[in-house]
Amino acid sequence: MPLYTNTTGNYNTGVGFYAGANKPASTSNHTAIGYYAGWIAGQSNEIEIGNSSVSWIGGRQVGLITVMNA
């Protein structure tokens, strides 16, 4: 049940069992990919990949930049 609690938001994508299911009802422009991805309640305009069990995300041709919010 991707995006189970999102009842009024727009432009969301959830792929995977319970992907983004814990988001507020009005979250918009949010993407959650993977089993329980995005389970921590978040805001609009976010992309979440995987859950706390994921130990590596990467790609051969694409470098990823880690952004941390203080």
Terminus-to-terminus distance: 32 Å
Q: Runs with pLDDT <50, length 5+?
A: none
Strand order of the largest sheet: 1-2-3
**Run of helices and strands:** EEE
* Tally of structural domains: 1
Label the structural class.
mainly beta
Largest sheet: 3 strands, parallel
Helix content: under 10%
Strand elements, count: 3
Q: What is the 3D form?
A: globular
List the total number of helices: 0
Average pLDDT for all residues? 78
Gyration radius from CA atoms, angstroms? 12 Å
Strand content: 5-15%
Question: Can you describe this structure in just a few lines?
Answer:
By secondary structure, the protein is an all-beta fold. The protein is 0% helix and 13% strand. It has strands at residues 13-15, 31-33, 47-49.
Give structural notes.
The chain is globular. The chain is mostly beta strands and 70 residues long. A three-stranded parallel β-sheet has the order 1-2-3, with no helix packed on it. The chain is built from no helices and three strands. The protein has strands spanning 13-15, 31-33, 47-49. The protein has one domain.
Keywords:
three-stranded parallel β-sheet, mainly beta, 70 residues
Indicate the topology.
Layout: E1 13-15, E2 31-33, E3 47-49
Parallel strand pairs: 1-2, 2-3
